[in-house]
Amino acid sequence: MTVDTDRSPTSGAPAEGRQGADDPDRVAQTERRDGLVTTGAFDVRALITSLPQAIRKLTPRAQARNPVMFVVYLGAVVTTVLATWQPSWFAWAVAAWLWFTVVFANLAEAVAEGRGRAQADSLRKVKRDSVARRIDDGTITEIAGSDLRIGDLIAVEAGEVIAGDGDVVEGIATVDESAITGESAPVVRESGGDRSAVTGGTVVLSDRIIVKITTAPGETFVDRMIALVEGASRKKTPNEIALDILLTTLTIIFLLAVVAVGPMQQYAGQSPDPIKLIALLVCLIPTTIGALLSSIGIAGMDRLVQRNVLAMSGRAVEAAGDIDTLLMDKTGTITFGNRRATDLLGAPGVTTDELAGVAYRCSLADDTPEGRSIVDLCLDSYGVEPLDATLRDATRSNVHPEFTTVPFTAETRMSGVDRTGSDGRVVEYRKGAADAVARWVTAHGGTVPESVLDEVERVSSGGATPLVVAVRGAVVGDEAAVGDDGVRVLGVIQLSDVVKPGMAERFAQMRAMGIRTVMVTGDNPLTAQAIAAEAGVDDFVAEATPEDKLALIRKEQSGGRLVAMTGDGTNDAPALAQADVGLAMNTGTSAAKEAGNMVDLDSDPTKLIDVVAIGKQLLITRGALTTFSLANDLAKYFAILPALFSVIYPQLDALNIMRLHSAQSAIVSAVVFNALIIVALIPLSLRGVRYRPSSASRLLGRNLLIYGIGGVITPFLGIWVIDLIVRLLPGMG
Ligand SMILES: Nc1ncnc2c1ncn2[C@@H]1O[C@H](COP(=O)(O)OP(=O)(O)OP(=O)(O)O)[C@@H](O)[C@H]1O
Ligand SMILES: [K+]
Ligand SMILES: [Mg+2]
């Protein structure tokens, strides 16, 4: 057991290095920083500090949620009544230890929940009251952050707290998100692209942005994080419900068996003692796993929080343990997502100046990061004469009589501007994915020159994204001479992005875990291939629309496979919602974060390795403790049955292999052991059984061996030792 003695989980202080080298279960080393942090290790003091909370859970209502422990609870009540009615040392000893059993079970849950409370406290600090400057028809009203409604537009400037969750709809800013992510380096949040989501409670460090509110007060990301780490929103997973049903069935069977013992005793001329029968029942029903089941689940979620992953459902965590396929989008997930225009390559007979002029027009109203980077490149490196500010702004906000914006969509994979001249003739400026533009050009009777196709191929093979630029219609003004109404390809814009470091080895690790990694991108096959090779994914799908992404997941799932998806864009949202595990990047859009069932605050897609390990560990821990609990209960037969019957059937004394002192001391010892084993296993239930990547059947065999045999042997030793002490107490015969 790893005992971290230098901090209490309820101290509220975010720990430095919550995971150290002392944690044997650490599956992968991730940089840890300040932030949403607690110790992953178990702290003995937590048992004491969580005691009041455990006692508070003694209400019938709280107990009724757990059928196995509810039987113990009722047993404790009945035994207490009997002990008051006919007091004896034995009766009171059993009553007291039955109450301890119930409290210890509550304690397991309270300790697990307590670990989240410190995180919740530090998150509440993020939820400070802030003032929002709401924009209504151009005027600004100051209102309380708590009065914001979905759809409100607010202006936030450097130094101000963002009052609510939303998407940046105008501007670009650096934002300090450390209160939530623990990452102290500021992040860029900008309109238009996949890095538009901002979280209420974070602070704008530079510039000014306009944010469109996407969540109602009280339902914000931070609110959900608080509910999550406190376990308030925890629902039983299907697996837990199935196990609950099994445990309840066993409890009913044992209840019937014990009820039958009374008449048997009577028949043999011995008057049955209800206290002994209750003790027998409690020892036989699976109290150990019944007591620890919910803390195992809570601890699994908590371990994810320690890795900066927020799981919105326990079901997703369990599914993660069995993932077969991981789908990822490319930009922003495998690459940094900071696609910048880096080069312009003119078609034959087109000068780069002409190309730059058209590229600039194309991107004037394109509010994506790609579009803005093209404008920057054209102005800074190609000396394009900028349009005057009013004209530009009018175009951008699509109110100019002459210019009509054609925004980028994931379906068309093109964007541009239509310009209506004074003679009513329209010129269409377009740029976009090579295949999309080629289709547009062909549809209008044009062709893409061979040399442009060569450039596209060259740019793509290097892992960059080529955008083909084309114009259709008569020339108005000073752009490239296109002659008549025809359509003409002007050249290629090169967009460059960088693969996040360390991808290849992490994907290799996934391969070792039996997970197939597939990159799904809207980009062209050559770029996809180059990036796929660099990142080391097993497979890739290119030119995928949002529907394709969704269909791919459905196809994988229909083959019985469990699928994880990581993504950041609005176009990934349907797929994130469909996947068994939908891990959204925190840098992504609100839509993506809403759709997924997990959010990675570090925006690291390979974090899925940790998520899978934690999911597997959760399943293994639950299996191991269930095995242990059942084996354990079996062994208690040997302590209690001889004690109950040896007076009438002396042969049964042969079963009393522990040579327990007396019937009373045997029963009390069994009940004491039954209670103490719960406390002894709390650390294991919270920390989880050690997990190493290996085949599922090997793991299962190994655990059955350790926890099955351990579960049989431990009670014999434990009850024998406890009996040595208990026999010294009064009333033990
Ligand atoms: N602003 C833009 N204007 C025109 N075309 C664009 C623009 N941005 C991207 N494209 C083109 O559309 C393609 C699809 O872009 P999108 O951002 O939808 O990709 P995606 O499906 O999210 O995949 P990934 O994020 O993995 O690249 C890009 O590969 C590019 O060729
Ligand atoms: K038991
Ligand atoms: Mg994307």
Put the structure in a nutshell:
The chain is an alpha+beta fold and 733 residues long.
Overview of the molecule:
The protein has 733 residues and is α+β, with helices and mostly antiparallel strands. It has four domains: 44-119 and 238-308 and 612-726, no CATH class; 131-219, Calcium-transporting ATPase, cytoplasmic transduction domain A (Distorted Sandwich); 323-336 and 500-600, Rossmann fold (3-Layer(aba) Sandwich), CATH 3.40.50.1000; 344-494, 3-Layer(aba) Sandwich (Calcium-transporting ATPase, cytoplasmic domain N), CATH 3.40.1110. The protein is built from 25 helices and 22 strands. The strands form four sheets. A seven-stranded mixed sheet has the order 10-22-21-20-11-18-19, sandwiched between helices. The chain has a six-stranded antiparallel sheet with strand order 2-1-3-9-4-7, with no helix packed on it. The protein is elongated. The structure holds adenosine-5'-triphosphate, potassium ion (K) and magnesium ion. The site of potassium ion (K) has 6 residues, from loops. Magnesium ion binds at residues 194, 329, 331-332, 569.
Task: Show the helix and strand layout.
Elements: H1 44-49, H2 51-56, H3 60-64, H4 67-85, H5 89-126, E1 131-136, E2 139-144, E3 153-157, E4 166-170, E5 172-176, H6 178-181, E6 187-190, E7 197-198, E8 203-206, E9 208-213, H7 221-230, H8 238-267, H9 274-284, H10 287-306, E10 309-311, H11 314-320, E11 325-328, H12 330-334, E12 340-346, H13 352-363, H14 369-381, H15 389-396, E13 403-406, E14 414-420, E15 426-433, H16 434-443, H17 450-461, E16 465-472, E17 487-496, H18 503-512, E18 516-520, H19 525-535, E19 539-541, H20 546-558, E20 563-567, H21 573-578, E21 581-585, H22 590-595, E22 598-600, H23 608-645, H24 663-687, H25 696-726
Parallel strand pairs: 11-18, 11-20, 18-19, 20-21, 21-22
Antiparallel strand pairs: 1-2, 1-3, 3-9, 4-7, 4-9, 5-6, 5-8, 10-22, 12-17, 13-14, 14-15, 15-16, 16-17
The structure holds adenosine-5'-triphosphate, potassium ion and magnesium ion.
Subunit structure: The system is composed of three essential subunits: KdpA, KdpB and KdpC.
Subcellular location: Cell membrane
Domain P-type ATPase A: 131-230
